[in-house]
Amino acid sequence: MAQATAPPRPLSRSRDGDARPVPRRRSQALSAHVFLAPWLIGMIALTLGPMLVSLYLSFTDYGLFTSPRWVGLANYRYMLEDDRFIASIGATLKFVLIGAPLKLAAALAVALLLNRASRGVGLYRAAFYAPSLLGASVSVALVWRSLFATDGLTDRSLSVLGINVGGFTDNPDYALYPLITLTVWQFGAPMVIFLAGLKQIPKELYEAASLDGAKRMRIFFSITLPMLSPVLFFNLVMEIIHSFQSFTSAFVISGGSGGPSDSTLLYSLYLYEQAFTNFHMGYASAMAWVLLAVVGLVTYFVFRTSRKWVYYAQEEAS
């Protein structure tokens, strides 16, 4: 008895007359568009659309409650004459250049300590990661402000040692350092990424180096750091972008005014002030696009220089 066979797929003829199965691309494409529709709508309505509107507003004089008036490059030219804009650039660069490296250094140092197998290491990992879960919240910034304010815990502790600062948050020479210490304290996220990278380093490399008599520092700079360089590169890019966007801690600790002599006037804080305090939405939009350009250039520079210090084992092997 002959076995039943499945019916043949319908055939269609191409323009050259060859017979071939009819593709089901139309139904598959429809399903793909249905699943992608929420993301596409969100991207257009919540990201791409507002960005294009912001780009247009950056060339206008717009006060939020008035109609936009085209002024061309006037907003961008005014930045060169705005003393507070220049001050915000200086404070932001200082914050990024000091805060990001210190945060990564602290994260790497703790990751190296926690990479060893010991009793209770999971508890220590959770404890060090906990500050990152709090994020840049208002409550944490308020606590930090009280710690570094005049007659705060930090000020009183230093007074016992004979160091009279007079309050960090009220001193223009030291007001930025509470912001830096706060961002360094929240090193949990890059620490976890460093831990994952350390777990991927082959133990045979360390065993061979130990047999050759290499010391700890030599092993760190010759094995650990090169093998960890892709992870370090990722953390560096992410921390630079995050540092340029820092806002909540600066707003709360400085009381929303930029601190004494604008010493804590970060770029994002001044952008917020221009937009929602002074209602200079056109000028704020121009500042936002300048920030985007600067972050893009810095990220591009890091990518370009990464070819000289980031080590990829697969590329070397090939």
Number of helices: 14
Mean pLDDT: 87
The CATH superfamily appears as: MetI-like
Cα-to-Cα separation, first versus last residue: 58 Å
What's the CATH first level? Mainly Alpha
Please give the CATH architecture: Orthogonal Bundle
**Using DSSP, what is the number of strands?**
4
Low-confidence stretches: none
CA-atom Rg in angstroms: 28 Å
Spell out the helices and strands N to C: EEHEEHHHHHHHHHHHHH
- Share of residues in strands: under 5%
Tally of individual domains? 1
Helix content bin: 55-70%
CATH topology: MetI-like fold
- Largest β-sheet summary: 2 strands, antiparallel
The secondary structure category is mainly alpha
Shape: globular
Q: What secondary-structure arrangement, pairings included, does this model have?
A:
Layout: E1 11-13, E2 19-21, H1 25-57, E3 60-61, E4 69-70, H2 74-79, H3 83-114, H4 121-134, H5 138-148, H6 153-160, H7 176-185, H8 188-199, H9 203-211, H10 216-244, H11 248-253, H12 267-276, H13 281-309, H14 313-317
Antiparallel strand pairs: 1-2, 3-4
